[in-house]
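Hi R.,

Here's the input for the iron/sulfur cluster complex you asked about:
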Amino acid sequence: MKEKCGLFAAFSNSKTDVIPLVTIGLRGLQHRGQEAWGIATPTMNPFKQNGLVTDNLDQSALVLQQMKTNVAIGHVRYSTAGGTSLSNAQPFSINKKFCIAHNGTVCDLNSVNTKLTGKKPRRINDTSIVGKRLLTILKTNNFDWFKSITLLCDELVGAYCFVILTPNNEIYAFRDTRGFRPLCIGWHKKSKTYLVSSESCAFSMLGAELTRDVNPGEIIKISNKGLESHSFSRGERTAHCSFEYIYFAHPSSVIDQTSVYESRRKLGQMLAEMYDVNGDVVVPVPDSARPAALGFSEKSGIPMVEGLMKDRYAKRGSMRSFIQPKYKERLKINRWIMPVKSAVDGKDVIVIDDSIVRGISSRAIVKTLRNSGAKSVKILVTYPPIRHPCRAGIDFPTHEELIAYNTSGKNSDIETINKKVGKSVNADFVGYNTVENLSAGIGKKSSQLCMACHDGEYGVLNRNLSNENLE
Ligand code: SF4
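And here is the predicted structure with iron/sulfur cluster in place:
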C-alpha cells in the first residue's frame, strides 16, 4: 500500500476539547486525501468515515460531540493500492495499546513483517504492520518510546511520517531521516494547544501559528510535561519531495522554511526566462498552477486570464484529478474543467501546468481550448519530465503509464521529450522545466531534494547509503 495522506494531532494544556480543532485541521489537509478520514482518542477506538470530512456532516457531528478529549490524532487518506474500504482508513488501533497514523510509503514491508511473524504479509498494509512491529519492540524495551521508535526506524526503508497516540494521553510524531514528507509543529494560543500537522495550511485555518518543522530524523513527544525532542538522524542528506512544492502541498503552506506559493510563482518566472514563446494570454490549469502562471505573466508581460475553471458547484468539481485512484474517476473530474470561451477565443494560448504525469488532463485541456476557439495551445510545465514511478508515496504506478517515458524512454534529452509529448497531447508546443531551474525555484540545492520520479535515483530511500554515494 502506498499512502500520501495528511496527518494532524492536537494536545491541549488547558484541557480544551480538541476534537473541533482536529476536525477543522483535517479539513485544512483535505487536498492531501479525499477518500476517507478518521480521528483517534485515548479510548483507542478510532472514528472513521469514507469521503470528505464535510460529507455526512450531521451524522459525524453527533459522534464527534461525544468524543470530548484534550488529546487526539487524525488522518485524511489517499491510497493508490490496497483498496478504498473503510477498514483501510486510519488511524489504526494497535491491540488497543496505541493508535497510529501514517503518511508516506514503507518500502521494505516484507522484511518488517518477517521480523514480526516470520511470514510475508498477506494483506499489504504498511501502517498496521509497522504499528505491530513497534509494539513488539516496545514490549522488549520496557515501553521506552524514544528508544523503540529509534530502533524501529533503523529497520524501515522508505518515506514516512507517523503520529501516535498512547492511552497515557501522549502524542509521538516522527519523520524519516531524509524528510521526504512534510511535518510541522504549531501552537493554538487561545486554547493553549500544541498541534502537529502534515502542512502549516491547517494551522492557518485554525488561526494557529507555525512554530517549526519536525526535523528529518526527529521524534517529538507532547504530553502534560510539554514538548520533548529526540533525534535519530545520522547526518543523512535530506531528500525533500520536490513534487510537494509544485503540486501536492497547499499553496499557503510553508514547508521546511520554504513558501510553497512563492516557489510556484518563481518557477513560473523562470519558465518565462527559459522559453521565449509567443502568446496572447497565459492560462493556468486550476488550481495548483495558478501561482506559476502569475509568475510567468509577471515576467513575460503576457496577461494572465482564467481561461479554464473548475466547476465548483459540481460535487466532484473541487477534487483533484491526479489523486483519484481510478482512471474512470480521473476522466470524470476532467469533465468538470470548463473553458471560458471569451478568454481564449481567437487567441494564442499559453497554458501553465505544474506537471504532466499520464497526459490525460493535458490532452483534454488542449481539446477543450481548441473547441473554444483557441488559435494555438502551448503548454509549459513547472516540473521536469516524470519518467519513473514514485516509490515514496505518490501514485505514479508504472513506467508505461507515464507519458514522458512512454513517448521518449528514460534517457532522451529535454527537446526530444518536449516534441514527443507535445505531439501526443496534440499541443502546438510543450516545454518542460529543468532540474536546475526547479531546485533554484524551490530555493534548495538539488542534492537536498528527491527527484527520483525524474531521474530514477531511488537510493535516497535507503538511509544507509552514504551522502557521497548519492551526490
Ligand atoms: S519520486 Fe517524485 S513524487 Fe516521489 S518523493 Fe521523490 S520527488 Fe516526490
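One thing worth noting: The chain is about 30% helix and 25% strand.

Cheers,
M.
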